């Protein structure tokens, strides 16, 4: 029940305090006396739209404040608890309109939004106006009257809870459907990219090793020629280096007993001879395994070309990074399957 209404700087009212004692209160007056202005001010604290055009003095704010007795209504108590507002036997609703048209709302001096103010006002005030009789022809109003007469309050409350839960679940389902639709759109492109990489079938460090092998094959004739020349000088020339070291070592061997350092030097010459002999063998083995092959070079070029094309496409520089992208695409495709 409304106990008091205070209005400052609204329409034609500078300031007024109206008290409403218990029982019926009637506000009367001739046309233009201000009855509708009082109702308009009351509407502000019930959550109606506000603007600065209603201010008498454009240089100071408008304040409308109403004091209500709650009569310990359970609905009011629930509202206050749900919105963490202080609850008393009396509630003070206040609306302030600044000179720039912005408004603020308060319940017991605690700032609230207009939606909260409107929700509370429906629990405190039944406002009937001139054309309210038109609601009699509206289906929603008729249904509310029938439910009220039938005492369906608890049933409707349960229905609203179930309906809200259904709407929440429906919203989650719609979001999942939208997400799946987006995944499906992306999946086609991801599947194409994954298949492309999977069919390429690169192994770890393959492109780096292929590049090194290709460089070796492209220079195979020069490498083989150099190996043959060195091998020839070590083993097959008229005076092979290996044989020369052996001859030099034998020449010193005759005088080994006459100088203390000669045995060590002879030993080093013999070691050098054996090392050069091993090197000659390795050179010959490497030369045997190097063969210029146009077919192999073409195969490696094709493989490398494919790899470089895919690396450029995905913006990476190594085989490892390319394989990491392939794994990421596989995980995305699995996620699309799992969302079902």
How does this structure look, described?
- It is a single chain.
- By secondary structure, this protein is α+β, with helices and mostly antiparallel strands.
- It folds into two domains: 2-127, 3-Layer(aba) Sandwich (Rossmann fold); 206-317, no CATH class.
- 60% of the residues lie in helices and 12% in strands.
- The chain has helices at 35-45, 74-82, 114-124, 139-150, 153-200, 206-218, 220-236, 241-253, 262-289, 294-314, 319-339; strands at residues 2-10, 13-19, 62-69, 90-97, 103-107, 110-112.
- A six-stranded antiparallel sheet has the order 2-1-3-4-5-6, covered by helices on one side.
- α5 packs antiparallel against α11 (319-339) and α7 runs antiparallel to α9.
- It is rod-shaped and about 145 Å long.
Mean pLDDT, nearest integer? Answer: 85
DSSP, total strands: 6
H and E order: EEHEHEEEHHHHHHHHH
Strand order of the largest sheet: 2-1-3-4-5-6
What best-fitting shape do the alpha-carbon axes yield? rod-shaped
Oligomer: single chain
Keywords:
single chain, 340 residues, alpha+beta, Rossmann fold, 2 domains, six-stranded antiparallel beta sheet, 11 helices, 60% helix, rod-shaped
Element layout with pairings:
Blueprint: E1 2-10, E2 13-19, H1 35-45, E3 62-69, H2 74-82, E4 90-97, E5 103-107, E6 110-112, H3 114-124, H4 139-150, H5 153-200, H6 206-218, H7 220-236, H8 241-253, H9 262-289, H10 294-314, H11 319-339
Antiparallel strand pairs: 1-2, 1-3, 3-4, 4-5, 5-6
